[in-house]
Every structure is written in structure tokens, then in C-alpha cells.
């Protein structure tokens, strides 16, 4: 059974990809964590450490990519209080939970949004997929949710197409779609990596504000300890498919136990003084340069 305040508990999760030439690739190895109601848990680690596979497995989407869950449980508390193991759920049931109980926002809104439908239609579609609403009711919900994610001039935006919005506005629309059916858990997979720094800060502010307002839980995936410092309550550090350290954000930065955690902190110049300077040699990191977008925020 889950403690009352826990929304999601991942227990000893193992996920493998078949690899014809060699033995299967164990992308996620014995991963365990839980997320409380209203909490933001950051999953942090370098490229290939297994963050996205973990997140996509919580959505039960990795099987579509040929992965197999070889062990573990993903216990989820639904909005009606029922607790279920997502691993055991047949696809047709999981499909009903995506968007209504858990939703996910990806890095690149342009590849998630459909270019030929308006913003309003895409949010309304997310609503009518799960709820028995008329077209005009769904449009009213779409308008409210656009306002909730602070899209200025929301009425006009409803009838615009994705290409008419800036990168930051598109990411707000993706968050609006993810929020439309008020899931209790939102997964954000590197949602700000493709945005420039000021827009990134605005999106992080938005996620924080939404959490205070609607009390949802967040699983936030990032490689950037600077972002972790801004957004997380607790942190799981992933390395080569395993979680090597879990702690509160305060403890992670003030008293990092694992050398790899110290290396990640040192990779962020303004946080680096807080961490062990020897660590980067032990765990050389790929240094990320977020793609700078020349798009100017409009409105
Ligand atoms: N569809 C797939 N088929 C085969 N292997 C995959 C697939 N998706 C991911 N992997 C492998 O699983 C491992 C974990 O990848 P994952 O995408 O979870 O890393 P990550 O920590 O999210 O990194 P990134 O930030 O670069 O996405 C990697 O070795 C990756 O190559």
C-alpha cells in the first residue's frame, strides 16, 4: 500500500531494450523513487543515464519503442483514491490514464503540436478525448487553461496555429494541453532545454506557480543542476541506468554524497563552488549547450 500522501511509487524498476548484436541494453536498473502530492521530484543525470526511459516507462510508452519492463512496480494513486500498478495494466486501460491522471511535456513543442490544427482545437481535443464535453464546453475549458498558463490575449491565441507562436508560447500551450484534464502528476522531460535562458526562467516560474495554485505533483527531467536548484523539492541523481543518490534539494547541494552528484554540481559555474572540485575528473561530463532560439517572445 502507498502512504497517503504518495501519488507515485516506482519500485525496483528494470527496463531493457533488445539488442540483436549483443546482450540486451539495461537502460533502467533497479530504479526506485516516490513522489508525494504537490511535490516536484527532479530526475537528473547526463545524456543516456536513463531519465527519459524511466519517465516514458511511467507513461507505459517505452514498450512502443521495443523496450521490456523486466522487473518492478509502478504504483499510482488515481484521483478517485484507487491505487494501481501501471506495469500490470493492459494498454487499453493505460491509454485512458494518459492525459487524465498523468501527462507528459517534451522538450520540443513543435514536434508535439500538430501544425494544421489551431491551439484551441488541440487543447479541446485533449479535453473531449477524456471527458464528455460539447465542443463549446471544451473550447471554454481550453480558454481557461490557456489563461492558467499565462498566455496573454488567450482568446486570440485559441484560433492561432503553432507556427504563429514563439517557442516559449508553444511550450506554454503544451503545458496547457497536459493540464487540460487536471492530471495529478505531470512529467516534464527537459521542457526548457530548447529555450533561451530568459524564456527558460519564465517556464520554470510558471511550473512553480501552477503547482502552488493547483497542487499537482511534478516529475521534472533535466541534465542541468541549475534548473534542479530552481525547481525541485527532492532530487534523484541517475548514472548509467541507476539512481545513485536521492535527497532533498537542500541536502543535494549542501551535502552531496556521491562523487557524480558533485561533478554535476561543479558543471554549473555558479553552483560549482558548492561542490567538490576533484569530482569532474572522476566523472567527466558531456557539457551541454542548450540550443539558442532566435525566436522573440511575442505578447
Ligand atoms: N528506443 C530505444 N531503443 C534502444 N535504446 C534506447 C532507446 N531509447 C533509449 N535507449 C537507450 O537507453 C539508454 C537511456 O536513454 P535515455 O533516453 O533514457 O537517457 P536520458 O538520460 O534521458 O538522456 P537524454 O537526456 O540524452 O535523453 C541509452 O543508452 C539509450 O541509448
From TrEMBL:
Keyword terms of this UniProt record: ATP-binding, Cell membrane, Membrane, Nucleotide-binding, Transport
Major localisation: membrane
Localization, UniProt: Cell inner membrane
InterPro entries to which the protein is assigned, alphabetical: AAA+_ATPase (IPR003593), ABC_Ni/Peptide_Import (IPR050388), ABC_transporter-like_ATP-bd (IPR003439), ABC_transporter-like_CS (IPR017871), Oligopep_ABC_C (IPR013563), P-loop_NTPase (IPR027417)
Entry-linked PROSITE patterns: ABC_TRANSPORTER_1 (PS00211), ABC_TRANSPORTER_2 (PS50893)
GO molecular function: ATP binding
Domain ABC transporter: 10-265
One Pfam family from the record: ABC_tran
Domain of life: Bacteria
Transferase found in the keyword field: no
Coiled-coil region: none
Membrane topology (UniProt): Peripheral membrane protein
Family note: Belongs to the ABC transporter superfamily.
Protein name: ABC transporter ATP-binding protein
Organism field: Microvirga puerhi
Amino acid at each position: 500500500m502507498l502512504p497517503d500522501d504518495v501519488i507515485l511509487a516506482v519500485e525496483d524498476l528494470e527496463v531493457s531494450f533488445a539488442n540483436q548484436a549483443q546482450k540486451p541494453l539495461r537502460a533502467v536498473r533497479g530504479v526506485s523513487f516516490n513522489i508525494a502530492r504537490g511535490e516536484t521530484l527532479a530526475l537528473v543525470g547526463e545524456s543516456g543515464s536513463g531519465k527519459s526511459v524511466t519517465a516514458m516507462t511511467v507513461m507505459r510508452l517505452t514498450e512502443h519503442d521495443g523496450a521490456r519492463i523486466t522487473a518492478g512496480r509502478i504504483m499510482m494513486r488515481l484521483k478517485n483514491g484507487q491505487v494501481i500498478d501501471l506495469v500490470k495494466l493492459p494498454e487499453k486501460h493505460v491509454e485512458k490514464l494518459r492525459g487524465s491522471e498523468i501527462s507528459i511535456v517534451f522538450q520540443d513543442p513543435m514536434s508535439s503540436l500538430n501544425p494544421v490544427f489551431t491551439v484551441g482545437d488541440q487543447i479541446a481535443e485533449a479535453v473531449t478525448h477524456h471527458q464528455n464535453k460539447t465542443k463549446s464546453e471544451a473550447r471554454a475549458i481550453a480558454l481557461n487553461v490557456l489563461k492558467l498558463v499565462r498566455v496573454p490575449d488567450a482568446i486570440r491565441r485559441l484560433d492561432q496555429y503553432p507556427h504563429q507562436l514563439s517557442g516559449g508560447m508553444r511550450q506554454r500551450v503544451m503545458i496547457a494541453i497536459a493540464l487540460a484534464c487536471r492530471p495529478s502528476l505531470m512529467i516534464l522531460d527537459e521542457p526548457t532545454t530548447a529555450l533561451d535562458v530568459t524564456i527558460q526562467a519564465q517556464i520554470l516560474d510558471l511550473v512553480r506557480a501552477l503547482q502552488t495554485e493547483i497542487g499537482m505533483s511534478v516529475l521534472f527531467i533535466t541534465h542541468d543542476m541549475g534548473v534542479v536548484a530552481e525547481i525541485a523539492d527532492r532530487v534523484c541523481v541517475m548514472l548509467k541506468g541507476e539512481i545513485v543518490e536521492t535527497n532533498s534539494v537542500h541536502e543535494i547541494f549542501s551535502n552531496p554524497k556521491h562523487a557524480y552528484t558533485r561533478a554535476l554540481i561543479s558543471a554549473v559555474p555558479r553552483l560549482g563552488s558548492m561542490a567538490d572540485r576533484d569530482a569532474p575528473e572522476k566523472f567527466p561530463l558531456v557539457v551541454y549547450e542548450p540550443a539558442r532560439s532566435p525566436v522573440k517572445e511575442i505578447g
